[in-house]
């Protein structure tokens, strides 16, 4: 009999909070009364953040110099502010689409991580086929570094002189550590061959390059090959077509005064109707000068405050549940 | 196997094919061939008894499953896209990455299919392994074999309470008459016993040690002249096996229904496709213009291998396809899989609901259709059967009229009421399973007046005849109950007896004793219980396709003096059982029934053994049945007939001058009318005494009819009609079919929920109307329109005036009978009928055939374009159940056909309330919101990519790593919507039940409409714009690189999508919190880990770098806030300003339970007041209800009678 009773309730569902859908639940109802304090809080917080951002951004200075398509080898600048701390020296391009897919994948990771096996030519496999049509030259010699991305590397150079009493005094530019730490230390590696030049035996330099990879920086032998800082900066593709890239750092700051910028103009921009620029900017915790975000915070913060007032009116009108 | 030429093999195979296809099967016993190899077996061509309901085999699972899955267009589309990605010119991702989503989707579905198939396999295996006894000539005894090893031509021994392993030919039974009884509950759900006879002409010798079977060489089933039902029990020749059994042949695959929501969804998927194409064309055009705008070839354009560039037009053509690949997620690939998962979850919760569990039958709700749960929330019309659905279909004898005198059995009512209270108390006290009600309800409380009448007169008079007729004129089988049916615990019964010494509870205790008393049963108690186990197993197996039937051994011949209390009656219809129990209560105990005789114990204690000369079984044309017996004392031939009143009244002896008879007939008719008004089912009992000559001449004719080959049915019926004339009326009975628990409440609630309830019944209008009032389908102050036509008159009802008048009259109920219905369904009238019916609050169709039921359902469904639900319990409801959008079967008294055909099987009508109002509402609102969210989610995410195209020359590049993009949809944002679809609760179950009108939100268009879809798509566009352009303006002109730019975008998108869901979630449980937080955590963990591990990844260390930059957080914060602000405001305003019932209910939900109940009450009474007001208005405009109805009157022969309810009854 006992057994039978057990059988009888065999199909009985478990009486647990979960199966009976009775888990304790919090049922928030978004109604005017509840959200008013929230809006006030958010509004105040946003205005606070907005002010902080705006003030910080106001203290940042940026000097942008546009170069049109003419060959300007020398340019006179007047810096009318004297920012504290290091100043970043950028070059910029407009209408330059580094963010295309075909362009972006046109490189050989194995080459760039210093694997010598990829410095040879083996038809259809090495270098990577994505490098097409910049894989090898007419003599079937592999191009190192191969690919469109490396091939199109920006190659203008800049020198900055301060005019002190009519005397040009070169401003020291620091080219170290301008690339991502991980790029420099982990992702890109030179082949461990000494001297570096030997590793490139039997290869050719990219078509548009004037110097081979191992001679990118004649002043510093350690800054050559795939870990050349300018190369690394270039290889990190920009997200948007109008961009700037870090060229150098001016560690001592840029006192107000007259300067002269000397440019060796190599890079063609006519083909894509683009422009070049150089920019000097100091940075803070929020990066370069950017007033948008601060304004956005201020606007949304005020909007929230306005909204809370509107909500208050609504709340007064449609209070629920009614007392009547 | 010995060598055989291939030709011989082919010939053999062909012969086998022929043997299988033939209608007539020649079977040879396997015995002489035992031990020979398979090749020599005579029955090798027939399939074995193993049952296989699985769809796949282990070896071919993958190809077969893939083949099946590729029948889905969506899967083909995505595979096509993945393949397209391998074409270099249009490539948008790494090709392998593009394969991942489709592979995951296919794998998920395959796992689900494999799991389902494995369950089928397991249940098959369990069934195939069941033991049975097969005779072996080697061992000279029956040996135990597994079911699947039984072969065609074997001799099988089946013992009492065994399950029959295959379709069998009954050769021999232990019963001297060669009779056995089987129960076919597992086949058709009929729980009564069916008699089967052994094949005559088979000589079987049984010796002590060994059983020798001598079979006339070949048994040809056709020649022996036995139709299939005669093919069962005891020792049998196996005749059909496994897949060829009738049960398997009748087992159709699961039904596939497409829910309304799914149809809507498909339209929206098409919109998505259009949207996708528009976006791709824009991308393609943009690319063209971008290329055209270049003065010459810049360095960053990558030429082809040979150094030349594609023309802009060709390139933009390629880009079109790349765009499709890139933006493919806009068409939600995982939506269909997610919907299926959600529905599985929803069904899990439905089947696990304790409120839908019936303790008496130990049955939960069964969901047979897996994909229409949300339709439950949109029902507008319910079509219900009456008997067994609204009522218990457990008949209680209530009143009778004998020889024109009425015996109202008033005691019945009060005693039962007291009893019920008592049982209720016991239930609470003992906390045990309930008492099965059929024990209480077969109980008859005796009418003292009638009892005195019987006791007083010892001679065989009309009173005795009446009860004899009740006891004899039926097909009830006397048997002992199987232990399975015995549910009362001994303890409970004992207590019951102590407190209730009076006789009504005798059978209750007898039930307990019954098992022990049946000592002749060969199987010891233990084996009996194991047999019962098998039975239950068989039942569970039954649901998955295997069919079995269990056996009962009935008493044989004239039973030894078994105490009357220990008898158990197995009746084909509950009415018969009720009548036999009544006879027994008055002392006329049906002791046993064999094909040839009936033994009845009289109140005096004497037993009479009537010889049964013939049984004229019931058919629906005659509407009556008769039994012809020879009285053991007077040796008279007596015909006892019982049947529907009109079927008997017509046949009464024309009483020339006999005023008494006439008076009896008219009195009885009055009583019958009165019974019908009370909602009782009426039967007339009559008898006829035949002289021997009369009988003999008729018997000859009868034999002729029985032996006839052509037109047999008709001849048999004719012969029955011939003898059923000049009957002498004995009396009439009124049997109550009690309403099921809380049926009126359920009907009321459903109606408040805006569902129109129609009752379609085969009963007569009077009974139906009364049940209608009883279950509050009709209200006392309703306007009842009764539409019926006189017999044979060509009736063309016509509305004389515009039926729009009906609009303003709120409560109109329509009662239609079957014949009128046929006319109303004719093509020229059906529109007007539908129009009228739509304005009626409830419709009652009486005397309708099963076909008519389904026609009505179809008509309403097609004409009004509404969601319909049909609920029924019997075979006659199957058509209706299949015709409706949702078919609900009630597993009740009448068998399993309705359950088999249904989408949902419940055990009580009242369960419909929670199923629709709570689960239906939840399922619908959950799924609707989930689907909308899914569209939104994909659109919001994909649009980010689209906006980026404007800044990358429309080159189909993504600013997010492809792997992370795939993970985004597969890992980070896939579980929350599924959980949302399974677990969200907009309003609590209590509120939904308390305020049925909340159900109306789902009816018609509901939450998922054209409007809501586009609103959420617009919202998706807005949010993606915000999520893209806030970072864009922030980082514009800076030195940010692609992936560093994409990371905040992706993060914003994730937060927006998850917080959007959080706004939509109505009830937060720990599961919600866990899953939402889990998704966010997973996103960061996976992205961070991926940034560390994967060196080739261009975004190496990107998130890490971003996460140390405060700007990242500031950008994410403001973008998320701006993106969600409109929706948040929308919800706030919606909740504050509008007062939709759902919102109000949600407010109430937050209150304390006690105050909440108070509110619900007030609300309902408030609504009630409103309704009263409207009815007041209408009564003003129609001061005289009759005047208002004049507009509805029919011309010519059709008529409408109307009045308020009381008058209607009077008119009837």
UniProtKB/TrEMBL annotation, chain A:
Signal peptide: none annotated. Pfam families: CDC50 (PF03381). It is found in: Membrane. The keyword Ribonucleoprotein does not apply. Belongs to the CDC50/LEM3 family. The chain crosses the membrane at residues 29-55, 75-93, 295-316. The keyword Nucleotide-binding does not apply. This is Cell cycle control protein. Keywords: Membrane, Transmembrane, Transmembrane helix. GO terms for biological process: phospholipid translocation. PANTHER family: CELL CYCLE CONTROL PROTEIN 50, CELL CYCLE CONTROL PROTEIN 50B. GO terms for cellular component: endoplasmic reticulum; Golgi apparatus; plasma membrane. It comes from Neogobius melanostomus.
From TrEMBL, chain B:
Keywords: ATP-binding, Endoplasmic reticulum, Magnesium, Membrane, Metal-binding, Nucleotide-binding, Translocase, Transmembrane, Transmembrane helix. It is found in: Endomembrane system; Endoplasmic reticulum membrane; Membrane. It is a multi-pass membrane protein. The chain crosses the membrane at residues 73-91, 97-115, 265-290, 317-339, 948-972, 1008-1030, 1042-1063, 1070-1091, 1111-1130. Its cofactor is Mg(2+). Residues 899-1137 form the P-type ATPase C-terminal domain. GO terms for biological process: phospholipid translocation. It is an enzyme of class 7 (translocase). PROSITE patterns: ATPASE_E1_E2. PANTHER family: PHOSPHOLIPID-TRANSPORTING ATPASE VB (PTHR24092:SF79), PROBABLE PHOSPHOLIPID-TRANSPORTING ATPASE (PTHR24092). This is Phospholipid-transporting ATPase. It comes from Neogobius melanostomus.
């Amino acid at each position: 009999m006992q057994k039978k009773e057990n059988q009888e309730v065999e199909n009985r569902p478990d009486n647990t909070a979960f199966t009976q859908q009775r888990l304790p639940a919090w049922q928030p109802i978004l109604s005017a009364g509840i959200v008013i304090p929230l809006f006030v809080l958010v509004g105040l917080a946003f205005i606070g953040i907005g002010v902080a951002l705006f003030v910080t951004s106001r203290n940042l200075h940026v000097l942008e110099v546009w170069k049109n398509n003419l060959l300007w080898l020398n340019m006179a600048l007047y810096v009318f502010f004297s920012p504290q701390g290091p100043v970043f020296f950028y070059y910029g391009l407009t209408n330059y689409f580094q963010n295309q897919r075909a362009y972006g994948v046109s490189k050989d990771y194995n080459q760039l991580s210093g694997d010598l096996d990829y410095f040879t030519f083996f038809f259809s496999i090495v270098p990577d086929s994505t490098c097409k049509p910049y894989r090898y030259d007419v003599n079937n010699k592999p191009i190192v570094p191969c690919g469109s991305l490396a091939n199109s590397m920006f190659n203008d150079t800049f020198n900055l002189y301060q005019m002190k009493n009519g005397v040009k005094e070169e401003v020291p530019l620091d080219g170290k550590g301008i690339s991502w730490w991980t790029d420099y230390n982990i992702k890109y590696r030179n082949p461990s061959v000494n001297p570096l030049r030997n590793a490139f035996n039997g290869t050719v330099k990219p078509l548009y390059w004037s110097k081979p990879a191992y001679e990118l920086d004649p002043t510093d032998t350690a800054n050559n090959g795939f870990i050349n800082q300018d190369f690394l900066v270039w290889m990190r593709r920009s997200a948007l077509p109008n961009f700037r890239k870090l060229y150098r750092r001016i560690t001592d700051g840029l006192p107000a005064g007259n300067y002269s910028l000397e440019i060796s103009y190599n890079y063609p921009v006519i083909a894509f109707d683009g422009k070049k620029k150089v920019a000097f900017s100091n940075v803070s915790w929020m990066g370069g000068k950017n007033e948008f975000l601060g304004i956005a915070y201020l606007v949304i913060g005020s909007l929230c405050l306005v909204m809370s007032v509107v909500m208050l009116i609504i709340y007064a009108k449609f209070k629920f549940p009614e007392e009547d | 196997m010995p060598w055989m030429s291939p030709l011989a093999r082919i010939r053999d195979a062909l012969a086998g094919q022929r043997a299988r296809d033939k209608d007539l099967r020649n079977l040879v016993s396997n015995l002489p061939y035992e031990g020979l190899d398979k090749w020599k077996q005579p029955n090798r061509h027939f399939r074995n008894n193993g049952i296989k309901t699985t769809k796949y085999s282990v070896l071919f699972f993958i190809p077969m499953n893939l083949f099946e899955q590729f029948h889905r267009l969506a899967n083909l589309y995505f595979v096509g896209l993945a393949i397209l990605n391998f074409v270099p010119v249009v490539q948008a991702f790494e090709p392998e990455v593009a394969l991942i989503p489709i592979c995951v989707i296919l794998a998920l579905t395959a796992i689900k299919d494999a799991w389902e198939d494995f369950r089928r396999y397991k249940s098959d295996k369990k069934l195939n392994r069941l033991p049975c006894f097969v005779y072996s000539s080697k061992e000279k005894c029956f040996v135990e074999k597994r079911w699947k090893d039984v072969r065609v031509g074997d001799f099988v021994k089946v013992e009492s309470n065994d399950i029959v392993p295959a379709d069998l030919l009954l050769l021999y039974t232990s019963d001297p008459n060669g009779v056995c009884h089987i129960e076919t509950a597992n086949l058709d759900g009929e729980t009564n016993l069916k008699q089967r006879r052994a094949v005559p002409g088979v000589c079987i010798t049984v010796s002590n040690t060994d059983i020798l079977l001598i079979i006339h060489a070949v048994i040809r089933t056709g020649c022996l002249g036995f139709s299939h039902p005669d093919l069962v029990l005891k020792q049998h020749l196996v005749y059909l096996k496994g897949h060829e059994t009738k049960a398997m042949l009748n087992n159709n695959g699961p039904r596939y229904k497409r829910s309304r929501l799914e149809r809507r969804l498909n339209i929206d998927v098409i919109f998505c496709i259009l949207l996708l194409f528009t976006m791709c064309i824009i991308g393609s055009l943009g690319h063209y213009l971008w290329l055209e705008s270049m003065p010459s070839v810049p360095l960053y354009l990558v030429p082809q291998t040979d150094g030349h560039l594609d023309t802009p037009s060709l390139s933009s053509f390629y880009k079109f396809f790349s765009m499709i690949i890139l933006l493919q997620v806009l068409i939600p690939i995982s939506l269909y899989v997610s919907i299926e998962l959600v529905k599985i979850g929803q069904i899990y919760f439905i089947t696990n609901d304790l409120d839908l569990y019936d303790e008496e039958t130990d049955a939960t709700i069964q969901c047979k259709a897996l994909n229409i749960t949300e339709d439950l929330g949109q029902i507008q019309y319910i079509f219900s059967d009456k008997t067994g659905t609204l009522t218990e279909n457990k008949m209680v004898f209530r009143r009778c009229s004998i020889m024109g005198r009425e015996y109202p059995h008033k005691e019945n009512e009060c005693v039962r009421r007291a009893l019920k209270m008592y049982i209720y108390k016991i239930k609470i006290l003992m906390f045990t399973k309930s008492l099965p009600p059929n024990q209480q309800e077969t109980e008859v409380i005796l009418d003292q007046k009638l009892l005195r009448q019987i006791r007083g007169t010892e001679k065989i008079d009309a009173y005795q005849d009446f009860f004899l007729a009740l006891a004899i004129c039926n097909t009830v089988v006397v048997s002992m109950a199987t232990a399975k049916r015995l549910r009362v615990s001994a303890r409970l019964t004992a207590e019951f007896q102590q407190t209730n010494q009076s006789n009504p509870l005798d059978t209750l205790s007898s039930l307990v004793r019954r098992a022990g008393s049946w000592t002749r049963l060969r199987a010891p108690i233990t084996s009996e219980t194991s047999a019962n186990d098998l039975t239950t197993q068989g039942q569970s197996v039954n649901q998955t396709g295997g069919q079995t039937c269990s056996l009962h051994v009935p008493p044989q011949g004239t039973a030894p003096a078994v105490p009357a209390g220990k008898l158990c009656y197995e009746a084909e219809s509950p009415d018969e059982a009720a009548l036999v129990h009544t006879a027994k209560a008055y002392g006329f105990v049906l002791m046993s029934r064999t094909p040839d005789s009936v033994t009845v114990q009289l109140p005096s204690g004497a037993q009479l053994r009537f010889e049964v000369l013939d049984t004229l079984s019931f058919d629906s044309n005659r509407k009556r049945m008769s039994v012809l017996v020879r009285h053991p004392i007077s040796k008279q031939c007596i015909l006892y007939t019982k049947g529907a009143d009109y079927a008997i009244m017509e046949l009464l002896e024309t009483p020339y001058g006999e005023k008494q008879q006439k008076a009896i007939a008219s009195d009885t008719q009055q009583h019958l009318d009165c019974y019908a008004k009370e909602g009782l089912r009426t039967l007339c009992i009559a008898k006829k005494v035949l002289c021997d000559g009369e009988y003999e001449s008729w018997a000859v004719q009868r034999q002729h009819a029985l032996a006839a080959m052509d037109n047999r049915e008709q001849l048999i019926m004719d012969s029955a009609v011939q003898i059923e004339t000049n009957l002498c009326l004995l009396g009439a009975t009124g049997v109550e079919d009690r309403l099921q628990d809380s049926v009126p409440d359920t009907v009321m609630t459903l109606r408040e929920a805006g569902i129109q309830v129609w009752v379609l019944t085969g009963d007569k209008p009077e009974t139906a109307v009364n049940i209608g009032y009883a279950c509050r389908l009709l209200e006392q102050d309703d306007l009842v329109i009764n539409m019926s036509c006189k017999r044979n008159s060509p009736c063309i009802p016509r509305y004389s005036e515009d039926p729009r008048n009906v609009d303003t009259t709120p409560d109109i109920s329509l009662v239609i009978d079957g014949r009128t219905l046929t006319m109303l369904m004719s093509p020229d009238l059906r529109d007007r009928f539908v129009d009228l019916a739509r304005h009626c609050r409830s419709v009652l169709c009486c005397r309708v055939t099963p076909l008519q039921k389904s026609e009505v359902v179809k008509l309403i469904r097609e004409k009004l374009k509404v969601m319909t639900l049909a609920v029924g319990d019997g075979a006659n409801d199957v058509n209706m159940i299949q015709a409706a959008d949702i078919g609900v079967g009630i597993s009740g008294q009448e068998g399993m056909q309705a359950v088999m055909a249904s989408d949902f099987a419940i055990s009580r009508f009242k369960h419909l309330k929670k199923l629709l109002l709570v689960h239906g509402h939840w399922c619908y609102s959950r799924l609707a919101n989930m689907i909308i969210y899914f569209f939104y989610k994909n659109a919001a995410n994909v649009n980010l990519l689209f906006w980026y195209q404007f800044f990358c020359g429309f080159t189909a590049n993504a600013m997010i790593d492809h792997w992370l993009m795939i993970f985004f949809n597969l890992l980070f944002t896939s579980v929350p919507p599924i959980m949302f679809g399974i677990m969200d609760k907009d309003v609590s179950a209590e509120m939904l039940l308390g305020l049925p009108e909340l159900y109306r939100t789902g009816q018609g268009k509901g939450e998922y409409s054209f409007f809501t879809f586009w609103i959420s798509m617009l919202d998706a566009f807005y949010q993606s714009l915000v999520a893209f352009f806030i970072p864009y303006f922030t980082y514009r002109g800076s030195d940010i690189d692609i992936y560093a730019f994409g990371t905040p975008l992706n993060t914003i998108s994730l937060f927006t999508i998850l917080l959007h869901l959080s706004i939509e979630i109505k009830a937060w449980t720990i599961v919600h919190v866990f899953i939402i937080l889990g998704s966010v955590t997973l996103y960061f963990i996976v992205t961070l880990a991926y940034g560390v591990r994967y060196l080739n990844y261009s975004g190496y260390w990107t998130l890490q770098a971003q996460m140390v930059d405060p700007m990242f957080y500031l950008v994410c914060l403001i973008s998320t806030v701006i993106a969600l602000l409109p929706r948040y405001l929308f919800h706030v305003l919606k909740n504050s300003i509008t007062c939709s019932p759902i919102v109000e209910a949600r407010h109430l939900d937050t209150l304390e339970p006690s105050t909440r109940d108070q509110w619900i009450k007030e609300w309902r009474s408030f609504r009630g007041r409103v309704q009263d007001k409207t009815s007041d208005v209408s009564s003003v405009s129609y001061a005289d209800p009759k005047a208002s109805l004049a507009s509805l009157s029919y011309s010519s022969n059709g008529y409408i009678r109307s009045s308020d309810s009381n008058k209607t009854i009077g008119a009837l």
